């Protein structure tokens, strides 16, 4: 997979991409990540990438011209075609499903907006997809792009170091993870649940599933509504959930 990122702050990505699972995937040759400075595609000597808003409002917008030029240049560098994703607060909400969908392509182009937003012609005629990572205000699309790249890259077969596959990730089951413990079995009087020390694997599996169910019901009832539970499990929850 080839990922091209268009940004006015390429330096923001270097730390995260050189420390994470992304670096391992790059080193293994599973993914190539290219950073492109949008200013390199500005047409004036001041390398202008923003301008005032027609009709008059406060703030600046990213100009269409450097973004179109950048996408066209980056597309000319490799023959594969894939989604052109604009990171924007107006985009569809990012999720594990969206990550899996993006991971199915050989090529991704991510455009990071900044200032008060991006010229509408980029939304309408350049981007093929618009993604938001959540309902909070960021200063730009860069952190959102890092989130998307991390979630997408760990879906690529072989990207994870351990034999655990990304299919084991919590959201892949639609439930939150059960509590986990490592040694010591007693830390300052805080004890690991007895069942986990029992060696009874059937009992342990049952306890973990029940903990996942309780946790999800308590913290993320929205997930529980869509999760794949047996009738028996739904009944068990009804009788074991604390009231209110
Ligand atoms: C005044 C209206 N604001 C929209 C909520 C303007 C605005 C704020 C912040 C426009 C752009 C931005 C910068 N944010 C992003 O580019 C962004 C983002 C985000 O702020 N939250 C969640 N996901 C994303 S993806 C890109």
What do you see in this structure?
It is a single chain. This protein has 244 residues and is of the alpha/beta class. The chain has 11 helices and 9 strands. It has 2 domains: 152 residues, SPOUT methyltransferase, trefoil knot domain (Alpha/beta knot, 3-Layer(aba) Sandwich), CATH 3.40.1280; 71 residues, tRNA(m1g37)methyltransferase, domain 2 (Trp Operon Repressor, Chain A), CATH 1.10.1270. Strands 2-1-6-5-7 form a 5-stranded parallel sheet. The protein has a two-stranded antiparallel ribbon with strand order 3-4. A two-stranded antiparallel ribbon has the order 8-9. Helix 1 crosses helix 2 and helix 4 crosses helix 6. The longest helix has 19 residues. It is elongated. Ligand 9D3 binds next to strand 5.
What is this structure, in a nutshell?
The chain is α/β, with parallel strands linked by helices and 244 residues long.
